[in-house]
Amino acid sequence: MMLRGVLFDLDDTLFDHDHATGCALAALRGDEPAFATWPADEFARRHSEVLESLHAEVLAGLRSIPEAREERFRRLFEDAASGPAPHGHARTLAARYREAYQDGWRPVPGARPLLNELRDAGLAIAVVTNNLTAEQEEKLRRCQLDVMVDALITSENAGVSKPDVRIFTAALEQLGLGATEVVMVGDAWRTDIEGALAAGIRPVWFNRGAAERPNPAVAELTTLEPPSHAVRVICGRGPS
Question: Could you tell me if 19 and 100 are in contact, meaning their C-beta atoms sit under 8 angstroms apart?
Fold first, then answer.
C-alpha cells in the first residue's frame, strides 16, 4: 500500500534531548563541586539511570515533574557527596538544570528540512512520544517543528506508553490511516521499533550512535542529513 504518513518519536529523534542534557549537566558540574568529582561520562550515565527510573513514575502519575526533578538531584547529590543534601539544595540544583536544559533546546540536525520534504511529498506527520503533553508541545514550538506536525500523541493523552500498540493505534486514528500506510521513525529499539512491529507498522531505526542493529531486516538511519537520503529510506526507496 502507498505510504501516506510518517510517525516520529520526539526525544532524540526530532528533538535533540542528548544535546540539551549535555548542556545542562555541564552547567551543573561547573556549579556544584560534588558533581565535578565524577568524570563527565560517569555523571551522564548516573543521571540517565535516575532520570529513566523517575520518568516512569511521572508517566504512571506517581510524581509530578517538579517532584521527580527535585528527587533526581537529591539522589545524585547524595551519591556524589556521600551525605545528605542541605535543605533546599536539591530544588536549587533542579532549577539550575532545567534552566540550562531549556537553553540547550534545538532540533536534531536535519529534522526541519526532513519534515519539510515529507510534507512537500504530501505525507501526514504525527509525533508519538512517551511524555507529558505540555512538555512535548513546548519542545515542538520552541524548535519550530509544531507547524509541520499534524498530530501529537503523548502517553499522557493516550493513557498508555510505547511499546503498547494502543498508542500507535491512537496515532493512526488521528491521521485516519492504516498501519500499512505509515512508517514509524524512532531512536529507541524497544519502545519505537518493537512497538511499531507489534502494531503492524514498518519501522525505521534512527541509530545516531551507530550501534549494532538487533534486526538487520529493519531499515536504519544514522543521520537525518541530507534529507533527500532520509526520505528515500523512510519511503523504502533506498538502502539504509
Answer: no
